[in-house]
């Protein structure tokens, strides 16, 4: 049988846990698929990249583009220029992209202009907020994709409303939950609580890195004031993205953090952060993926954004959208701490078997 060549392209932290299960599953079908991994280098710090490869037991990328940071246009253009050369040479039968980062967008444009088939894992999500760079990345990628693998029912409805042909759309479930399911037992052995001197259910875990929250000094100041207040009730552990740390320093915020229960630490690896979430009383975040992980783990989540592209986490799961108004964040968090937090269940097909379903579809469609 003539093998099909599939190239997976990843670039930033949230891509890695979405690609690892598919890489592994495709590897089980070595008689049918030759699978190659390209890392654009959008994220390059050890703690945002290599650490995840190690923990997720991902192979070293076959090709590393090393594009680094830059403005949206610079970064996207650098990925496109390098990737065009690589894909022209490799001539794959299919390229697969994940999520909604700039690497996803750049890869989608290059791939479709080379007339190579494109698959998008985590298709159809929409925040309907074009001020988020990720929303633009999602819309363009879905528009150009030949195979759209959808994680939750809203994705099916959004793609239908946009006129995407049903035959291109596949409801395969949430691949990030594949990584969570297969790593939870190992993550539970992490000693992160001991290292940070925390007791289960006696702290709040937090992340924040969205440009809309951290790039504007007044918004960032408001959120920090709110989390300092919350941290007087229960300690907050905040592994901090480099973008946020840079802004906090630039705006001269948090000089008095020592006096509150807010602990800003370096970014954590996948396993430590999974453990930190699983044992927390509450999670505060502006991330997309963490809204989903908390829903699966049944931990209350307060999202510091005005909208979500993952409504299943609100309709079915444990997520509450609080917005970025400091008062609403504080009230939402304190209400959760006073009560039991939002209860939820796990959405359909968030079961650890998504990568297997995607590979079944690829076998059906490519042979
Ligand atoms: C990117 C994604 C975002 C995702 C996030 C997860 C886009 C548009 N955004 O945001 O959707 O939720 O990753 O982390 O693709 N930096 C470092 N070290 C690194 C990488 C970045 O210090 O390894 C700093 C640089 O100052 C850089 C800034 O972070 O300019 C932003 O990096 P970038 O990759 O552009 O976007 P993120 O904010 O990380």
List the helices and strands and how they pair.
Blueprint (H helix, E strand, L loop, with lengths): L3 E7 L2 H15 L5 E7 L10 H6 L7 E2 L7 H19 L3 E5 L3 H12 L3 E7 L9 H12 L2 E4 L2 H9 L7 E3 L3 H14 L3 H4 L8 E3 L4 H4 L2 H15 L4 E4 L2 H9 L11 E4 L4 H9 L3 E4 L3 H9 L3 E3 L8 H4 L3 E3 L4 H13 L15 H13 L1
By CATH, the topology of the largest domain is Rossmann fold
What Rg is obtained from the alpha carbons, in whole angstroms?
20 Å
> What number is the mean pLDDT?
96
Overall morphology:
globular
CATH superfamily of the largest domain: Glycogen Phosphorylase B
Order of helices and strands: EHEHEHEHEHEHEHHEHHEHEHEHEHEHH
CATH class of the largest domain: Alpha Beta
Provide the list of bound ligands, each named once: uridine-diphosphate-N-acetylglucosamine
Biggest sheet overview = 7 strands, parallel
Tell me about this structure.
α7 packs across α12 (270-278). The strands form two sheets. The chain has a seven-stranded parallel beta sheet with strand order 3-2-1-4-5-6-7, with helices on both faces. The protein folds into two domains: 4-173 and 350-366, Glycogen Phosphorylase B (Rossmann fold); 189-337, Rossmann fold (3-Layer(aba) Sandwich), CATH 3.40.50.2000. The protein starts with a strand and ends with a helix. It has helices at 13-27, 50-55, 72-90, 102-113, 133-144, 153-161, 175-188, 192-195, 211-214, 217-231, 242-250, 270-278, 289-297, 312-315, 326-338, 354-366, and strands at residues 4-10, 33-39, 63-64, 94-98, 117-123, 147-150, 169-171, 204-206, 236-239, 262-265, 282-285, 301-303, 319-321. 51% of the residues are buried. With 367 residues, it is α/β, with parallel strands linked by helices. The protein has 16 helices and 13 strands. The structure holds uridine-diphosphate-N-acetylglucosamine. Uridine-diphosphate-N-acetylglucosamine (UD1) binds next to α1, α5 and α11.
């Amino acid at each position: 049988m003539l093998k099909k060549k599939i190239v997976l392209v990843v670039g930033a932290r949230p891509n890695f846990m979405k690609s690892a299960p598919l890489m592994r599953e495709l590897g089980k079908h070595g008689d049918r698929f030759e699978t190659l991994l390209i890392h654009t280098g959008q994220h390059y710090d050890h703690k945002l990249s290599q650490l995840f490869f190690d923990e997720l037991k991902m192979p070293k990328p076959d090709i590393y583009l090393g594009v680094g940071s830059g403005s949206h246009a610079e970064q996207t253009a650098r990925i496109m220029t390098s990737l065009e050369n690589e894909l022209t040479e490799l001539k794959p039968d299919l390229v697969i992209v994940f999520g909604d980062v700039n690497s996803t967008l750049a890869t989608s444009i290059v791939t479709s202009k080379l007339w190579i088939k494109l698959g998008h894992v985590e298709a159809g999500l929409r925040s309907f907020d074009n001020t988020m760079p990720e929303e633009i990345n999602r819309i363009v990628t879905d528009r150009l994709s030949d195979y759209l693998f959808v994680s939750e029912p809203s994705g099916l409805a959004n793609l239908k409303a946009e006129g995407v042909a049903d035959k291109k759309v596949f409801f395969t479930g949430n691949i990030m939950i594949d990584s969570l399911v297969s790593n939870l037992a190992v993550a539970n052995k992490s000693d992160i609580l001991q290292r940070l001197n925390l007791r289960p259910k006696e702290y709040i875990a937090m992340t924040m890195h969205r440009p809309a929250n951290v790039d504007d000094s007044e918004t960032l100041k408001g959120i920090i004031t709110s989390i300092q207040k919350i941290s007087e009730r229960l300690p907050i552990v905040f592994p901090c993205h480099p973008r946020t740390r840079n802004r906090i320093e630039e705006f001269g915020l948090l000089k008095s953090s020592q006096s509150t229960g807010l602990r800003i630490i370096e970014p954590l690896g996948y396993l430590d952060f999974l453990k930190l979430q699983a044992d927390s009383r509450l999670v505060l975040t502006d991330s997309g993926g963490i809204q989903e992980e908390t829903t699966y783990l049944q931990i209350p989540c307060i999202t510091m954004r005005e909208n979500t592209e993952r409504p299943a986490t609100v309709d079915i799961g444990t997520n509450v959208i609080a917005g970025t108004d400091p008062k609403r964040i504080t009230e939402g968090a304190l209400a959760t701490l006073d009560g039991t937090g939002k209860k939820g269940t796990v959405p359909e097909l968030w079961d650890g078997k998504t990568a297997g379903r995607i590979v079944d579809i690829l076998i059906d469609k490519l042979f």
